[in-house]
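User: Teach me something about this protein's shape.
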Amino acid sequence: MNNFPSKLVEEAVNELSKLPGIGRKTAIRLALHILRKEPSHAQNLGNAIIDMRNNIKFCTSCHNVSDTDVCHICANPYRDKSLICVIEDVRDMLAIENTGQYTGVYHILGGVISPMDGIGPENLNINSLVNKIANNTVKEIILALRTTIEGDTTNIYLYKKIKNNDVKVSVIARGVAIGDELEFTDEITLGRSIVNRTPYETLIID
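Assistant: First, the predicted structure itself:
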């Protein structure tokens, strides 16, 4: 049953409700909020989204979102390029950066191995990580993926791919609760988990 007084409002609500974390009621509130604002507000919002989608780049080194071919972190001469933190997506990078405890660079996989979701190693940015390590400039890889079956599976896969190289492989301390994603972990806990990281091989059970 269609209860909307306007087809235009209904279409806006339908599109807003497709966003993650946005239910039908929240979508209605957002649509009505936009209606209460000046037309320029909706215009600026729409233009910003379209401009982002059409012009965003992905860093050629770490796969971070960027306005340029190389992101500002990889381009920063003061970041330690020999230390790479492997993460799932941009949200994890933002969470770690907010701790102020990490001075290396990142490598964004773009997800984790999840056969149930049809995501295999070939769907992730793994080969480019292996190629970085093969250049013999990387001293340590920090695995900072979610502590779930999928995250642990990905950690194991990555470790097997890189263990024969002369590089240290560590994992963030388990101060991050099982199942929690990095973006929802408080900055102090996350910062300590990075500083107190442990060698990955000590966690492997034969």
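Now, about its shape. The CA atoms of residues 4 and 10 lie 6 Å apart. The longest helix spans residues 39-55. If you'd like, I can walk through any region in more detail.
User: That's plenty for now, thanks!
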